[in-house]
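Customer escalation, tier 2.

The customer says the design service returned an amino acid string that "doesn't look like it belongs to this structure." They asked us to rerun it and document both sides in this ticket. The original structure tokens are below, unchanged.
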């Protein structure tokens, strides 16, 4: 057995996904999330190759007569080298792996992409991948394979992030300088992940440099950032602290029309790492972010995430690796309506315990198993008057408590040199604890009027105050997972996967992307969990001596118990959300194509997705119409065609040029098709839900990175010039209808967020 950690020689930072290859044996493995690898080998001398993007390859002959611990340090590539052809490289290992529907992006690649207002953005970068779209111009979140934004599990150092955006989606909460690894699972999701039915975005922060003190950052037009890292104890302990803030609000007073408005964000990333000995490592990481909006001192909104995570890595042996995590997360938001003399405060708090094991049994068998338990407190809101003259009375919405737990196990088995299998399962349980709960006649919170064909909330007949220790509802599900790969040739393979996932939390929203005032509702007496079944089939091939990768996948998803709200539903500050909800089903089918060029001066990829995402919400009885008369209708996340082209060209040692082009079918929307006059009031009549679309979305972004010659200097600098939306496309974020005051005619007004935006940023390291 050969095992050990692999790290960066300059920073001592462990490296994730490093390829450890023995070409003579046609065996290999990769390092896990903490830089650890383990592989079983026969006795004798074998040729070792260690390969990782952005680092020099490591070659050696390893002689094994007994178990060996081999920790390695890789040298970063300092300049472009002549091409080296390696016969057994990582692409062939990827062909062997049963894992599919997974995309990774290097932070170095993301930093070369053009960005809005010059701010590098991880969330916007992943929307350039197949199967991933944004929620619309200026919106937060992202949609994966036709799923909603709340169906994505977003993890930062294993902590759940409920809102991943700053400034309502203009920026993401992830500071790229502090990020080490990014991986997006769209299907074939391993059994150690659960709780969402669309995707998992797993992001790990850097550990910090335990060799030398380093600093890096950037100065932009509207925001700046600074990251500091260094040793606590040489080669054993390190710290990392990074801050970022926008400051455009400082210049708003210079503009008369908006001088009383403010909009800004700030965040802080921290991490402490310490190596106790060869078998034990400790990590303490945190994140704190805040957004603040103040509109003419009439409306103030602040929201943000707070996260703390303590982790302990322990090696029981060279075959058994473990990680114990204790995580605290708090997502809170507050609104202050000065013009109405009241404020509203709300939050979601969770405590998370995770204990994960990776067991390297043989060169053909690897086990992963563990447990996870999350305790939630949902505080939907406390509404309080802010002045004595306020017409608002104090109103505390009912707190909700829940416990989500799971046991999981999975096995990776190399059946033969050509066939590998990943199979596992997750036993999840969700307990909804006691609270004050409405009771209804016939236990029905929603009444249907067949004469008017309308739904309305039922009047409660009473309330029952259950003790916190009581169990209102208990759900238990088994979630099987399977993935299979067959490598019929050295340069190509076929893969298939199936996974069932359960989502116990629901985002109740009438917008296409999350906003701070949206309602997260746990499953319980009136709301059942969402159940996903997803199938995927893929073809993977390397071309041109591994210079190109081709990935092609088709998939089908079905979701049970997908919620939608009735027409005219009031969602904000609704203490009886069950009165406006109906349960239906959703389905998505599509194909993804990714062609990537890996080598040469010109690199990049072309991604295309063809997709159809629909939802059906029938009536509960034959006489009820449900939504859209019980017929299928497009989800707000259906975008038939999605094409993105991402390129980077190394002009010379000083200049890098990059460009992105995006085209997406306009997202579904519901328009009014007629209006009625009643006592001088105009009442719109809307068409069937989501039966129209916004205009198609497309734009071109350009960037040029200038790195001056800085040999012999203690620091390096870099200028980034970018143009977002280079041909000034006025993409529609929304279309609203109104009556023209002067003409009295109805008119449609298209709201566009961004036109052409040039920017410049200066990045530095020392």
């Amino acid at each position: 057995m050969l095992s050990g950690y692999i790290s960066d020689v300059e920073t001592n930072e462990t490296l994730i996904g490093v390829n450890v290859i023995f070409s003579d044996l046609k065996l290999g493995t990769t390092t896990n999330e903490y830089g650890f690898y383990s592989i079983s080998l026969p006795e004798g001398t074998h040729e070792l190759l260690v390969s990782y993007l952005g680092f020099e390859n490591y070659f050696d002959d390893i002689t094994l007569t007994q178990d060996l611990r081999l920790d390695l340090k890789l040298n970063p590539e300092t300049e472009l080298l002549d091409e080296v052809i390696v016969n057994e490289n990582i692409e062939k290992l990827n062909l062997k792996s049963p894992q599919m529907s997974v995309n990774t992006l290097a932070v170095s690649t993301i930093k070369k992409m053009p960005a809005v207002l010059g701010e590098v953005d991880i969330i916007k970068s992943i929307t350039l991948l197949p199967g991933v779209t944004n929620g619309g111009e200026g919106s937060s979140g992202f949609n994966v394979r036709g799923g909603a934004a709340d169906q994505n599990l977003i993890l930062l150092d294993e902590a759940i992030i409920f809102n991943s955006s700053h400034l309502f989606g203009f920026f993401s909460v992830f500071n790229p300088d502090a990020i080490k690894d990014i991986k997006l699972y769209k299907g074939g999701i391993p059994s150690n992940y659960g709780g969402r039915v669309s995707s998992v975005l797993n992001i790990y922060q850097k550990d910090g440099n335990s060799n030398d003190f380093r600093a890096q950052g950037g100065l932009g037009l509207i925001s700046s950032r600074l990251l500091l890292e260094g040793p606590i104890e040489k080669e054993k302990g390190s710290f990392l602290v990074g801050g970022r803030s926008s400051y455009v609000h400082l210049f708003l007073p210079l503009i008369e029309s908006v001088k009383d408005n403010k909009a800004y964000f700030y965040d802080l990333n921290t991490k402490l790492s310490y190596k106790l000995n060869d078998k034990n490592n400790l990590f303490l990481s945190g994140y704190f972010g805040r957004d603040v909006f103040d509109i003419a001192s009439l409306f103030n909104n602040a929201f943000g995430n707070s996260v703390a995570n303590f982790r302990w890595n322990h090696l029981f042996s060279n075959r058994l690796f473990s990680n114990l995590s204790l995580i605290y997360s708090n997502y809170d938001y507050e609104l202050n309506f000065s013009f109405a003399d009241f404020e509203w405060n709300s939050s979601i708090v969770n405590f998370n315990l995770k204990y994960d094991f990776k067991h390297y049994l043989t060169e053909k068998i690897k086990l992963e198993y563990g447990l996870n338990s999350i305790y939630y407190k949902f505080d939907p809101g406390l509404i309080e008057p802010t002045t004595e003259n306020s017409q608002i009375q104090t109103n505390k919405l009912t707190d909700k408590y829940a416990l989500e737990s799971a046991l999981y196990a999975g096995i990776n088995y190399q059946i033969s040199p050509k066939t590998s299998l990943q199979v596992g399962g997750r036993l999840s349980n969700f307990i909804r604890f006691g609270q004050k709960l409405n009771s209804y006649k016939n236990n029905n919170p929603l009444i249907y009027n067949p004469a008017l064909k309308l739904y309305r909330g039922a009047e409660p007949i009473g309330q029952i105050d259950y003790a916190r220790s009581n169990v209102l509802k208990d759900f238990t599900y088994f979630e099987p997972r399977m993935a299979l790969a067959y490598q019929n040739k050295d340069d190509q393979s076929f893969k298939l996967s199936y996974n069932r996932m359960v989502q116990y939390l629901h985002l109740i929203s009438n917008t296409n992307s999350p906003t701070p005032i949206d309602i997260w509702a746990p499953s319980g007496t009136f709301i059942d969990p969402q159940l996903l079944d997803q199938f995927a089939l893929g073809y993977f091939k390397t071309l041109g001596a591994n210079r190109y990768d081709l990935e092609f996948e088709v998939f089908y998803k079905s979701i049970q118990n997908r919620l939608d709200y009735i027409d005219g539903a009031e969602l904000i500050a609704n203490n009886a959300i069950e009165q406006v909800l109906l349960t239906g089903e959703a389905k998505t089918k599509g194909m993804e194509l990714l062609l990537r060029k890996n080598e040469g001066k010109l690199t990049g990829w072309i991604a295309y997705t063809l997709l159809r995402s629909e939802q059906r919400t029938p009536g509960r009885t034959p006489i009820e119409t449900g939504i859209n008369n019980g017929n299928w209708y497009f989800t707000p996340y259906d975008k038939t065609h999605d094409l993105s082209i991402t390129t980077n060209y190394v002009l010379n040692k000083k200049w890098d040029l990059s460009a992105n082009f995006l085209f997406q079918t306009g997202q579904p929307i519901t328009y009014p098709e007629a209006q009625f006059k009643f006592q001088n009031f105009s009442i719109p009549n809307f068409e069937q839900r989501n039966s129209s679309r916004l205009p198609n979305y497309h734009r071109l972004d350009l960037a040029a990175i200038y790195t001056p010659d800085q040999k012999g200097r203690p620091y390096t600098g870099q200028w980034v010039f970018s143009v977002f939306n280079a041909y000034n496309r006025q993409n529609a974020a929304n279309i609203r209808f109104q009556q023209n005051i002067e003409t009295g005619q109805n008119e449609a007004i298209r709201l566009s967020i961004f036109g052409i935006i040039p920017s410049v940023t200066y990045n530095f390291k020392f």
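Tier 2 assessment: The sequence is consistent with the input. The first helix runs from residue 90 to 96. Confidence is low (pLDDT under 50) at residues 80-93. Sent an explanation to the customer and offered a walkthrough call.
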